[in-house]
Structures are given as structure tokens and as C-alpha cells.
């Protein structure tokens, strides 16, 4: 007996990738101000996500030669820290900029886009028997928003302000890890391209 198995494969579940676009503006008074060190704080994000965001951005900054530390590596999350004590400590440690991340909306959706069919046939002599089945295919999409604020630690004024939008399509491109990687890389890319951050000499 010879058994023949046929399947119709579909790649729609994994098409696409997570991508981040940022629109940002520099304050004219800080157009020529450059920082070689920064501390990153992720607000209203929860402890785990804050740790991932702060650590991910600092990792990217460090790779670009810019000194960076997560906020919670300096200020314990078990205590309340007022603005005066935070900026006093940052100035004491010679940190030029505080990068504040403010999480916005996070939206996701799924949609049935068709069916994936499988078939099999058995051939015995001059007789053929066949079976078929189908599985529903689902397309996933997701979008999230983040505001980024660069604060000069000396004046406590906003030197740069930007909004980030991260989007992804396909099951493997809407995960938290895919969005985190896209966002952190793009934030550092955008800020490194601005006049405000330069590698230590």
C-alpha cells in the first residue's frame, strides 16, 4: 500500500515585522545642548515592563558609547522619590539628561483570513481513498504608543519631546519581545541622530 499526504502551507501567519516610527522635536533653547550620560525612567509601566524598557534602552545607548543607567538602579522602587531629591542625586552623579518614558495606548486585534487545508490519499491496487480537513487561519495585528521626554537635569526643562508608535503584524511580530526590541532600538537611533546625545570621548 502506498500512502500519499498532501498539505497546503500558508505563510500569512508570520508575514510582517514590528516597526517603530517616532516624531520628535527639540526645544530651540537646547538645540546645541549635547549629553554624554543619561538615566532612563519608565513611568506607569509596571515593574517588569519598566525594567525591560529602561534596561533595553540603556543597553542600546551603551553600545553607542553613551553612558546610561536604568532609573531603578539608582532609586529604589520601594521608596517614594520626589523631584528635588531625584534631580539633586542626578546632578551629584554628573548625569546630564533624564529620559522619561510614558506608556500610551496598546491595541491588538485578530481576524480570520481563511482556512488551511490538508488532504491525504491511500492507494491500494486500483482503489483510492481520500480524506481532507481544514484549519482556520488567524491574522494578528498590534499597535502601541509611547511618549519620550528628555529632561535637562540642570534646568529641569524639556530639551526634546517625541511620540513613538510601534506596529506589528503576524503572530511572531506582535509579541512583547518584538515590540520591546523595535522600540528600544528606534528610540536610541532617533536620539543619537539628534544633536542632544554624543559618545563619551
Characterise this structure.
With 201 residues, the protein is α/β, with parallel strands linked by helices. It has one domain (2-193): Rossmann fold (3-Layer(aba) Sandwich), CATH 3.40.50. Helices cover 22% and strands 45% of the residues. It has helices at residues 47-63, 83-92, 176-193, and strands at 2-7, 19-26, 37-43, 67-70, 97-124, 127-152, 158-169. Helix 1 crosses helix 3 (176-193). The longest helix has 18 residues, at 176-193. Mean pLDDT is 81; it is low at 1-16. Residues 1-20 form the signal peptide. This is DUF4136 domain-containing protein. It comes from Marinobacter iranensis.
Which CATH-level-2 architecture? 3-Layer(aba) Sandwich
* Terminal-residue CA separation: 75 Å
Percent strand equals over 45%
Structural class assignment? alpha/beta
Domain count: 1
CATH topology name, in short, is Rossmann fold
The radius of gyration computed from the alpha-carbon positions, rounded to a whole number of angstroms, is 25 Å
Keywords: Signal
Protein name: DUF4136 domain-containing protein
Signal peptide: 1-20
Amino acid at each position: 500500500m502506498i500512502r500519499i499526504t498532501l498539505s497546503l502551507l500558508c505563510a500569512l501567519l508570520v508575514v510582517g515585522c514590528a516597526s517603530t516610527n517616532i516624531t520628535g522635536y527639540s526645544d530651540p533653547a537646547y538645540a546645541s545642548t549635547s549629553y554624554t550620560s543619561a538615566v532612563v525612567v519608565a513611568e506607569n509601566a509596571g515593574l517588569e515592563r519598566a525594567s525591560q524598557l529602561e534596561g533595553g534602552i540603556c543597553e542600546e545607548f551603551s553600545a553607542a558609547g553613551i553612558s546610561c543607567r536604568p532609573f531603578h538602579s539608582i532609586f529604589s522602587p520601594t521608596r517614594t522619590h520626589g523631584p528635588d531629591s531625584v534631580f539633586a542625586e542626578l546632578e551629584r552623579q554628573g548625569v546630564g539628561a533624564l529620559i522619561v518614558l510614558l506608556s500610551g495606548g496598546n491595541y491588538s486585534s485578530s481576524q480570520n483570513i481563511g482556512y488551511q487545508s490538508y488532504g491525504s490519499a491511500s492507494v491500494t491496487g486500483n482503489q483510492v481513498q481520500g480524506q481532507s480537513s481544514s484549519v482556520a487561519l488567524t491574522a494578528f495585528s498590534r499597535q502601541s504608543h509611547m511618549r519620550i521626554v528628555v529632561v535637562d537635569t540642570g534646568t529641569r526643562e524639556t530639551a526634546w519631546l517625541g511620540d513613538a508608535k510601534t506596529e506589528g503584524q503576524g503572530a511572531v511580530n506582535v509579541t512583547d519581545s518584538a515590540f520591546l526590541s523595535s522600540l528600544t532600538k528606534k528610540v536610541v537611533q532617533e536620539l543619537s541622530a539628534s544633536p542632544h546625545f554624543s559618545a563619551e570621548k
